[in-house]
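During the reporting period the student researcher (J.K.) took over the structure-prediction task from the postdoctoral fellow and processed the backlog of single-chain submissions. One of the processed entries is reproduced below for the supervisory committee.
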Amino acid sequence: MRERLRPRGGQALVELLAVVPALLVLALLAWQLAAAAHAWLLAGSAARAGARAAEVGASPREAALAVLPPGHARGARVATGADGRVRVRVRVPGVLPF
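J.K. obtained the following structure tokens:
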């Protein structure tokens, strides 16, 4: 005799509830990676602007900070080496507040 198949609607819900947190964590990690890449690109642009300013005798710090958006400029550190190299460090914004 054939067995009756029971509907498995509850199993799909349980599997969905197991997958959603993992997808959320992956999305937050991707967002954090994008924020870090953006900060890296901003620091590179600011360092180039600072190096150009130093080459013409202007202030590398002011030039580097002028290129950065206000949110990144507040926590940025600009250092000029003896060889004329300009280093800019910016804070990577966190996706989560902790």
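The committee noted the following: The helical segments are 9-55, 60-67, 70-73.
J.K. will present the remaining backlog at the next meeting.
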